[in-house]
Amino acid sequence: MDKAYAVFTANSNYPFIIPLQDSTNSLTVTIDMELTALNNYDEISGSIQVAAFLNVTWRDERLLELYNTNFKNAKTSAPIISEMVFPYTAVWHPSIKLLNSVDTVIEIGDEAYKIRENFERGTATWIPRVILTAACNADVTYYPFDVQECSFLFTAWDYSSDEIRLQILNSKIGKQKFATSLRMII
């Protein structure tokens, strides 16, 4: 495992270079949001605060090359190692920010959330837990039976759309892990 980690992190520029073999292409980063709690909804200030997980995935073309040259048994082609978990700072990851934040615009995730690299598939998965406070204007047209719709707008902050293309997997936020509220129906 130490040898695999050393091979993978030997290039000190690895965390800073978008993981594409051809830099004229753009990298697609997918985001799926899983809601765990509705912390606050404030009609007066026009904001919503939620706790959630973001499932962020992308293809890392360099992984396949590393896998084929370092992590397969030369005689049998069987995998020696197919997957590893790396510290946030050791591998490339997208700089994602909530664009419609009512607080300061800060980067999502930190060193607490590791990145899982799958060498066989050439994919990276990162699942940071987040507390998001977004702008959400109240529509009280049908009060007290009003229905509110709030959006969370994400951007790849440090990159142009020619470099990184964010793709939302589901237009609806997942609620399988949601802690139900007696006051609101989500």
Automatic annotation (TrEMBL):
Cross-referenced InterPro entries: Neur_chan_lig-bd, Neur_chan_lig-bd_sf, Neur_channel
Domain Neurotransmitter-gated ion-channel ligand-binding: 17-173
CDD domains: LGIC_ECD_cation (cd18989)
One GO CC annotation: membrane
Pfam family of the protein (one): Neur_chan_LBD
Gene Ontology MF terms: extracellular ligand-gated monoatomic ion channel activity; transmembrane signaling receptor activity
PANTHER family: NEUROTRANSMITTER GATED ION CHANNEL
Name recorded for this polypeptide: Neurotransmitter-gated ion-channel ligand-binding domain-containing protein
